[in-house]
């Protein structure tokens, strides 16, 4: 029998709680749900009012993975959705994970949480800028740290404050709170930053996605600022060999990183970090901390 749980008055059917999703560590689906319930306040703060895309991996990272933007079949009526701008589907909607019941319902599907850089209330008007630093082997997150520190200083020169998190995969994400601006304007600025990084660090950075250019370098992916794109949310688990999480990190941790293992954070690492440090990305949630893009009228 499928167990039914009540979360803040919503009845949610949970399934296969003993199923091992991460064979290398024996981490089960039940432990995935426990993780999300434990860190819910921090995660929900960052995905609130942001249309969510899901990367589903119901049989673990070695099984079938599929990306879905539309509300999955069987989405409960009480789960909120929001319209999203898609040229190929003018009536498209995506899920909003706004509360604990919606979070546990979504987590039961076994998903990565990916969000846009704009809130549902202002589609395609971004209040975040993101730079995804993706290392091409043999480069690792160690090289990403050097690039992140350069970008932090470059952003600061424009009056913008960057915050870092691990991607939960191989690299890093830098996020900046910005005063609302069209996604196209944010994308153009992010691309310019990536190009400047390549010019300043030619042996370390590439701003184009072409695989032939990437071995041994860090690809500064600026494209995720496009209105249609989404990025792995803070604290989401990833469909990797280990139950890694996209974890906020300090600049001191980036400066001291000497080995990729220094910035490898598993699900069990996150609650103690939150208890010790709080949410390192909390300034992104404060409108007063948002910076103005160069050339963006106030």
From TrEMBL:
One example GO MF annotation: ligase activity
PANTHER family per the UniProt record, alphabetical: BIFUNCTIONAL NON-HOMOLOGOUS END JOINING PROTEIN LIGD (PTHR42705:SF2)
InterPro entries reported in the protein's UniProt record: LigD_pol_dom, MtLigD_Pol-like, NHEJ_LigD
Residue ranges constituting the DNA ligase D polymerase domain according to the UniProt record: 28-280
Keyword Flavoprotein: no
One matching Pfam family: LigD_Prim-Pol
Lineage: Bacteria, Bacillati, Actinomycetota, Actinomycetes, Kitasatosporales
Alphabetized UniProt keyword annotations: Ligase
Origin species: Streptomyces katrae
Parts forming coiled coils: none
Protein name: ATP-dependent DNA ligase
């Amino acid at each position: 029998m499928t167990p039914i749980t009540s979360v803040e008055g919503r009845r949610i059917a949970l399934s296969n709680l003993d199923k091992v999703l991460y064979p290398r560590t024996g981490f089960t689906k039940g432990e995935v749900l426990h993780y999300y319930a434990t860190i819910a306040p921090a995660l929900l703060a960052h995905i609130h009012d942001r249309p969510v895309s899901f990367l589903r991996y119901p049989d673990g990272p070695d099984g079938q993975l599929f990306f879905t933007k539309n509300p999955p079949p069987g989405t409960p009526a009480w789960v909120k959705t929001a319209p999203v701008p898609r040229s190929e589907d003018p009536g498209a909607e995506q899920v909003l994970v706004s509360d604990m019941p919606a979070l546990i319902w979504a987590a039961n599907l076994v998903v990565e949480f990916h969000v846009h850089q704009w809130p549902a209330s202002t589609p395609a008007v971004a209040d975040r800028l993101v730079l995804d630093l993706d290392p091409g082997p043999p480069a690792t997150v160690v090289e990403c740290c050097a690039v992140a520190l350069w970008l932090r200083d470059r952003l600061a020169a424009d009056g913008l404050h960057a915050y870092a998190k691990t991607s939960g995969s191989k690299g890093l994400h830098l996020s900046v709170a910005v005063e609302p601006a069209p996604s196209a304007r944010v994308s153009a600025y992010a691309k310019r930053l990536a190009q400047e990084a390549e010019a300043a660090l030619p042996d370390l950075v590439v701003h184009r996605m072409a695989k032939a250019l990437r071995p041994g370098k860090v690809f500064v992916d600026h494209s995720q600022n496009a209105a249609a794109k989404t990025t792995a949310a803070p604290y989401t688990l990833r469909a990797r060999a280990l139950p890694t999480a996209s974890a906020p990190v300090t600049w001191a941790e980036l400066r001291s990183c000497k080995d990729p293992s220094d910035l490898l954070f598993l699900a069990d690492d996150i609650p103690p970090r939150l208890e010790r440090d709080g949410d390192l990305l909390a300034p992104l949630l404060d409108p007063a901390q948002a910076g103005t893009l160069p050339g963006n009228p106030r």
